[in-house]
Amino acid sequence: MDYLAAQGVLGTKVVRKWNGRYGEIHTYRYANQLPVRKEQPAMEVNWCEWIVRREDSSEQLYQNAFITNFEVRETNVEAITLDGRTRWKIENENNNVLKTKGYHIGAQLRTRPAAPGFFPALTQPSGLFDAHHPGSRG
Q1: Secondary structure of 74-131 in the HEC alphabet?
Q2: Is the distance from CB of 72 to CB of 32 less than 8 angstroms?
Q3: Quick one: which of 37, 63, 61 has its CA closest to 49?
Q4: Rounded CA gap, 106 and 98, in Å?
Q5: Which of 27, 34, 107, 125 might form a disulfide with 51, Cβ 3.0–4.6 angstroms?
Q6: Is the full-model pTM beyond 0.70?
Q7: Domain extent listing, the chain
């Protein structure tokens, strides 16, 4: 990050927000057209980071970084990081629910070694049906 800042390609935006109980300092850092690896040819991506700290104690409450193919600017960095956080949260919660309360595919496969292709065959069509008929579960 220090290298990007020294080169002048690292953008920064700092915003103070009130969450209803205390002030938060939201720091956004971003850079565009960064190579994914040192060797050439390398795909270039746009990167952004979101750090949230308490205003009174500087305690870090949240930090995450995202890559995207959208050009990241000062005007859209908040929206891009919020969308990335929302997507991560949905995927993480969904995976946790499936792992703890879902189809229990792993348990079924461990107890029935002859059925590896059977359970995914049952769960995949139901997922396709749900994707095309979102209100089907009532």
Answers
A1: CCCHHHHHHHHHHHHHHHHHHHHHHHHHCCCHHHHHHHCCCCCCHHHHHHHHHHHHHH
A2: yes
A3: 63
A4: 10
A5: 27
A6: no
A7: 2-100, 103-133
